[in-house]
Amino acid sequence: MARGILHSMSNSAKLIFDDKEIELPVTVGSEAETGIDISKLRSQTGAITLDPSFANTGACESAITYIDGEQGILRYRGYDIEELAANASFPEVCFLLIYGRLPTAEERVDFRRRLTRHSLVHEDMKLLFEGLPSTAHPMVTLSAMIASLSAYYPDDETPEEIDQNIIRLLAKAKTLAAFAYKKSIGQPFMYPQNDRTYIENFQLMMFSVPCEPYEVNQVVRRALNKLMILHADHEQNCSTTTVRTVGSSGANLFSSISSGISALWGPLHGGANQAVIEMLEMIQNDGANYQKYVDMTKSKDSDFKLMGFGHRVYKNFDPRARILKEAADEVLESLGVDDPLLDIAKRLEEVALADPYFIERKLYPNVDFYSGVLYRAMGIPTNMFTVMFALGRLPGWIAHWLEQRDAPGTRISRPRQIYTGETVRDWVPLDKRAEGIPGGLNHEYQMGLPDDN
Ligand code: SDX
Questions:
Q1: Most exposed among 154, 211, 216, 304, judged by the fewest C-beta atoms under 10 Å?
Q2: Which residue has a Cα nearest atom 52 of ligand 1?
Q3: Angle, alpha carbons 102-73-198 (nearest 5°)
Q4: Residue having the nearest C-alpha atom to atom 12 of ligand 1
């Protein structure tokens, strides 16, 4: 696609509202996206816009990631995702997203050295793990541990302190994720080794045990590298918007990222990769009756959704899903894994994409549809899939937190609303309150309570 700014038809929009006609400035981005700037709307008209899930609302201008949902384009700082997935290392992509360019050879070595040297976590953090039940979902553990890093590294004022915390976060998150996994299976924590690469260290901490030597599987290493790159950023998605919103109050990096981890956990977002495998297992156990589940999706009486399908932005295909579908074939063959769930996923995609319901709504497989099959083949358990998504998304969250922090004129995020509740009414004394709680009181708690006043 030719680059450069296509001059929009006009650089302003006219709004006629009641007896007022106002002109609103139009912002045109480097890929010719246009945004009508409504920052003066309320002061000029008294009205606000209403866009509950922000589907038509731009929250910011950003130079980090570009998505064209119609063309299936995804670029990090101008580089196509296909090129990055084929050629880059995940640490290189972290550097690219956070600092805005690919590292020189010297910077690449220095960045990796810094990431290696900060992989250890404070020994006291093991006590935090002891306080959690082994049944804790690894996402709650990861979110809690990342937030607690601000207790160990409270200095985050100067650019140098912030940069050091960025390195600490990228380096320690994979250690904490592996510790969460080991905690969940009752195995001892394995410590990072300074002679390993970023991904190899994660493999070692996840899959090795003290009682036997561990050899890094290079097929898994390459596949993990690709998976992390594909998840590294995706502009203003739910969890990144959460990170930017929390960061806009001045909250520190670790707390902001921890909130992003929590947002990602939802099954409509990053939690979908776990939900996809659970859905495929359900279909497998139900005689691979694809049409039944496609029909359930279409029925107004069922709230069943095909997890891993659909996207707010992609309306043709998710380029990441295409890359992952291809990678799944290659990796499973290399590992000698024959997972029936991959065949079920492919067949389900065929059946769904031939169905008018999906065609009309432009529902295609998204990044979460095939990723779980790959994680399974590598021996990563289902409840760790969204943790893998979070580890991949870390550089994107960090880049957006930093971009917002450094953007001139940044203000705290504070949307408005349209109130639809009761209008003003008078106080009612206790003995005059005729209405009870619908369905009556819950008598389980009806014990003699002292009155408050
Ligand atoms: C991610 O935003 C990002 O960039 C996210 C992400 C990232 O990298 O950060 O790409 C990662 O979160 C991917 C999405 C993972 N989630 C899922 O796979 C869960 C299943 N998908 C859906 O819940 C849904 O498609 C969403 C949440 C992804 C998008 O929701 P939207 O944009 O609000 O769309 P919608 O729910 O309004 O759906 C529009 C129509 C509806 O039908 P009608 O009411 O018009 O009749 O499409 C239907 C929906 O019922 N629909 C689905 C469907 N997804 C949408 N029907 C069946 N199965 C589905 N999966």
A1: 211
A2: 305
A3: 40
A4: 269
